[in-house]
Write a structure and sequence with these properties.
The structure is a single chain. The protein has helices spanning 7-22, 26-34, 40-53, 70-83, 90-103, 106-117, 232-245, 250-263, 268-292, 298-322, 332-344, 354-366, and strands spanning 123-126, 142-146, 149-156, 167-173, 184-190, 196-201, 210-221. By secondary structure, the chain is of the alpha+beta class. It folds into 3 domains: 7-88, no CATH class; 123-231, Butyryl-CoA Dehydrogenase, subunit A, domain 2 (Beta Barrel); 247-366, Butyryl-CoA Dehydrogenase, subunit A, domain 3, CATH 1.20.140. β6 and β7 (210-221) form a beta hairpin.
């Protein structure tokens, strides 16, 4: 693909920069600069500013989103992260949103998509379970059809953002089949439903928003079923491709590396590691553009997920090496680096471990073509 920026793309970059300079909430940018935790209220304020501009649903296909090119999406994400844009709600905007656009009924789209765009509802993702993490198809949570409802029983674990979400989409077992992937369905539930309880899980990073969600004979409307019953594995895999691409955060990594370069260290070995990481990031950026343009297979996206998360860990390791007062201060720049270092340790686990991604790649390479 052609990686040169056109005059129109350069004009778009200037437009994005002007927006973040003039129209994006300054208080949110300052919290990002300090490394303070971003609350739901912060996300609502930031997302509404983007929605007012028509840019919040940039990852959604037309006509639901703005219909950006791969290069426009990349420019927006890079400039936004360089400017201090707060993380958007990933489960709402990058996971369930595109799935609803592609597979949801008109009624589901009318009910849920505007509420997501207006930041009235936030979503959580119910995939992993106590006995089903990397081997997701082994999940045990059941959904039994009773008239116009499903009765849900089971537990979801490591559920991100359920502590402040309004809705959750769950991969559940609706039948027992010889092939375990064939009996799964994707069902959306209101988290206020009787029988659903949320228990936060403390983490060493302090702000991971991980939770245990228990379903005890929770009755949810059958209208919450996405697509066809028994096709949940297909929808889940389509969603996981979006999830794995959402870990790129090229702009954020560039900003962190630029901060390290400005700070300097006077150490040749450190400077060499910094330069090598910058080169790796530049190569990764080219691959991201190819993936966004649809030029990559699911196996290649798995390889990218490995590289995204390893690159994030490499950046936080450089921050750790550079910060003499690294773990001694929980505020300011060193506190920001400390929290990033702790949270990125899990990067090679969530969204499918690196080992699982390598298995996906191996199966593709080993299969006859």
């Amino acid at each position: 693909m052609n990686l040169d920026f056109t005059p129109a793309e350069e004009a778009f970059r200037r437009e994005v920069r002007a927006f973040f300079r003039n129209d994006y909430p300054a208080a949110v940018v300052e919290k990002m600069r300090r490394g303070d935790p971003i609350t739901r209220a912060d996300q609502e304020q930031a997302q509404r500013a983007l929605h007012a501009r028509g840019w919040l649903a940039y990852a959604w296909p037309a006509p639901f989103g703005p219909g950006w090119t791969a290069m426009q999406r990349h420019i927006f994400e890079e400039e936004g992260e360089l400017a201090g844009m707060a993380p958007l709600s990933p489960t709402s905007l990058f996971y369930i949103g595109p799935i609803l656009c592609r597979f949801g009924t008109e009624e589901q789209q009318r009910e849920w998509l505007p509420a997501i765009l207006e930041s009235r509802t936030f979503w959580a993702q119910g995939y992993s379970e106590p006995e089903a993490g990397s081997d997701l198809a082994s999940l045990r949570m059941t959904a039994v059809r009773e008239g116009d409802h499903y009765v849900l029983d089971g537990t979801k674990l490591w559920t991100s953002y359920a502590d402040y979400a309004d809705w959750i989409f769950c991969l559940v077992r609706t039948s027992r089949e010889a092939r375990k992937q064939d009996g799964l369905s994707l069902i959306c539930c209101d988290l206020r439903t009787p029988g659903i309880s949320v228990q936060p899980i403390p983490t060493m990073g302090g702000e991971a928003h991980l939770n245990r969600v228990t379903f005890d004979k929770a009755r949810v409307p059958a209208s919450g079923l996405i697509g066809e019953e028994g096709k949940g594995w297909f929808y889940a895999n389509a969603l996981l491709q979006n999830e794995r691409l959402s870990y790129a955060h090229i702009g954020r990594k560039k900003a962190d590396l630029a901060e390290l370069r400005r700070a300097g260290s006077g150490d040749d070995a450190f400077a060499a590691r910094l330069a090598a990481t910058e080169i790796d990031l530049a190569m990764l950026e080219m691959s991201v553009l190819r993936a966004l343009a649809g030029e990559m297979t699911p196996q290649a996206v798995s390889a990218l997920k490995i590289r995204f998360t390893e690159a994030a860990q490499a950046v936080t390791e450089l921050q750790r090496l550079h910060a003499a007062s690294f773990a001694a201060d929980a505020s300011g720049v060193s506190g920001k680096a400390a929290r990033a270092y702790l949270s990125e340790r899990a990067g090679t686990i969530y969204g499918g471990t690196s080992e699982i991604q390598k298995t996906i790649i191996w199966r593709h390479l080993a299969s006859p073509h």
